[in-house]
Amino acid sequence: MHNDTIAAIATPPGVGGVGVIRVSGSEAFELVLPLFKRPAGQSELPPSHKLTFGHIIDPHTREVLDEVLVAFMRAPHTYTRENVVEIQGHGGPLILRRILHAVLAQGARMANPGEFTMRAFLNGRLDLAQAEAVMDLIGSETEAGQRLALQQLRGRLSDQIQQARQAVLGAIARIEASIDFPEDDIPTPQPEDLQPLIAEAYQLVSSLLAGSEQGRLYRQGVRTAIIGRPNVGKSSILNAFLRTERAIVTPIAGTTRDTVEEAANLRGVPLHLIDTAGITPTDDPVEQIGVQRSRAAAETADVVLLVFDGSEPLTEQDRLVSAELQAMGFGLQAANSDGTISKRPVLLVINKADRDQKIETSELKKLWPEGVFVSTSTFSDAGLRPLEDTLADIVLAGRMLYSESVLVTSTRHQEALRRANGHLQASFHSLDQQLPLDFVSIDLRAAYDALGEVTGETASEDLLDKIFSEFCIGK
């Protein structure tokens, strides 16, 4: 299957100035050349990696389909390390489909999602971590996320993983040589021979895990629900974050009846903001659906902005909303499975700070004894800045912003690194307990394989299929 020639539209659906059809495989040149009509006298294969002007014609009717620029790129200096042809035509969907159909009629096969990148991986141009970085780079929402994806694509994560694997392999080799070749009088390695190698791997893996939560934030962002009773200014806060009038704002309570989701940039972290309907008892069936969706948004949020109207006294509805969030675990301490204590963060926003303040902060503090409070006004950027600064402090939790250190951004990578870390700790324990070296070797092998899952050296075919199926067609 990976030896045939594949083709697909490589640019996003829709109308654009330029569209690209990508063809890859051993027969890419032979399939495209008969479709490519150039000025008289030019029949030889154009120079590699240079754009050549001409027209794409229908192979059956000889009709001119489009005026194009075509690049013929010889292996192995291509994205897939196969012969690749890229046809640049006008970006109309009909034009691109007709060109693609002409290429398929010549004998190419329609590419599966992510198949070009999968071939780059299988042909050794990229390892699996780099291949995954391709989609991260395409989907990055902030400059910080883009830089991290590019860093991973350039192999910085892979280099550190390989360094850890080599240290583990060195320890395994010493153990197994003494076990497998006793007749050669190879001395049995002592703990002091193995511990430096295991410690090197453990330190590398631990440093990657230490930055993984920050990396996850830059890649996945923070889901932030704006919650409160009707008419406290939730939609105004959304618009202020976005610097545009995205949500409808009126003095009439209940203007927002559904959730509105948009993305903003919070110091390089994608902030997925969800404006919600006011949580309030109602007999209106449409409003009831909006309230249910507001509760669902709060349940799935990483952070909640609980908004109060500072120009009015605290109401019973404010208390009811607070009670609902506390029942969901926001603002309260919770024990994690590893024994640590964490909270679901809630930021208490006293809105409309530009008006006379009638809300009693002492009452709010009784409701939320450990709450973080911020006063804001959506009439100017200056009024929003305290909210952005406080939210950034909560989200980043004292962590440094983007640095040049390697940050793990993938949940899959984090899980593999945690397993590797656990096996390395177990190997230390076996050495301390003076258990037979076979026990140490088992854990080291497991750590070696777990690290290989990150770069793809020990990844199963099912895992590869799952990863590349999430790519877009044409990439």
Keywords:
475 residues; alpha/beta; Gyrase A, domain 2; Four Helix Bundle (Hemerythrin (Met), subunit A); Rossmann fold; seven-stranded mixed β-sheet; six-stranded mixed β-sheet; 16 helices; 15 strands; flat
Descriptive account of the structure:
This is tRNA modification GTPase MnmE. It comes from Dictyobacter aurantiacus. GO terms for molecular function: GTP binding; GTPase activity; identical protein binding; metal ion binding. This protein is α/β, with parallel strands linked by helices. The protein has 3 domains: 6-111, Gyrase A, domain 2 (2-Layer Sandwich); 135-211 and 409-469, Up-down Bundle (Four Helix Bundle (Hemerythrin (Met), subunit A)), CATH 1.20.120.430; 222-396, Rossmann fold (3-Layer(aba) Sandwich), CATH 3.40.50.300. Helix content is 45%, strand content 18%. It is built from 16 helices and 15 strands. It has a 7-stranded mixed β-sheet. It has a 6-stranded mixed β-sheet with strand order 9-10-8-11-14-15, with helices on both faces. The protein has a two-stranded antiparallel sheet with strand order 12-13. A hairpin with a 6-residue loop joins strand 4 and strand 5 (64-73). Mean pLDDT is 83; it is low at 246-257 and 333-342.
